[in-house]
Write the structure tokens for this entry.
Amino acid sequence: MSQPEAYKPPRGLSVPVVTILNDHGEVLEDGQREVVRFALQDGHGADIIFAAGTNGEWDRIDLRSQQLVAQIAVDECRRSPAKDHPVEAWVGITTHTRAGTLENLAHAIDLRADAAVVAPLSVTDVDDVVDFVVRDIAQTFERRGRTIPVYLYDNADIAAPGKPPHLHTRDVKRMSQLDYVHGIKVTATKNVLGNYTQAASHFKSSGEFAVYAGNAHLIFELFEPPIGFAGTLRDYWNRYWTRNALPAGLVAGPANVMPREWQRAWQVCEQREGALMRRYADVFERFRSACTFNRAGRQVRLTIACLKAALAARGVISDATVAPGTAALEDSERNEFKRRLDDLARFAQATLEPAYLSQNPAPPIPDRTIKHA
């Protein structure tokens, strides 16, 4: 079985791209390509494109659709202008069943995707997550004759009924010893994220196992420079919770709409430029608020519907349809969201550095269409 060359997990911004669908739930290839290209920003946006993840509505689209968006992501990343490092295409392979997940893995291997991402707690008929990753995934690699890197995905919101909300650290440690497991994406609180970053140094040699923050807004807290006694105390607790092992990157759903801004935010966080960090955090918090609505006296955040609506408002896509089962914007909410977006755009232009405002990509290179058998 062929092995990939020595691999180190990349640092930086992962954009979990939305899936562009028509009213029949079919993937719109042109729109999907535009979303990926917008996230790439001609080399100034994503370091990683993550297809068929939670923001891609993996649990509401069929196997063929998952594999198509994976194929598009890999193709577009290969065509992307070079940064100081190649943009990686990560493919979400999770389905509700073991068989479907392994079929998606085989497809990702055949595509030569840069990595596969699996949420083992979301697969309903997998009882032993370690056995699934150690045995079933390894057997798929054996049958295909090669491996690709695998990343674990931990998110309580998508765990299957009856499953624990988070992977046990001891299980992650066991899985991390495999040559092909290189990290974990954690969508959780700072304390849960800290459990993984504390243990990461024991999983593999330094730099071989990476933890990525799925709750992207946490980076502003984790990297905030200490100022005064309160800041010093907060910095001490952050370092205590993470054992000085801060995340290697972030997975930011809102970066579908603001890829350059989130890329720059990661840069200023790594550099601990407090003033700039606060400016970017303010803009992103306003976007999060813009996606929140009051329904029957209850606050609801319609993230996926708003991401698609924002991309449509920018002219990146022409169809903002969400998959069946995903909460959609009502007409009044759509109008209100458009107004909020306009206000946010003016605020961002007045607040952020002009060179780091996202731009619509140039027209596509001809002959991008995937040929189907």
User: Anything to note?
Assistant: Residues 12-272 form a domain with the TIM Barrel fold (CATH 3.20.20.70). The longest helix spans residues 331-351.
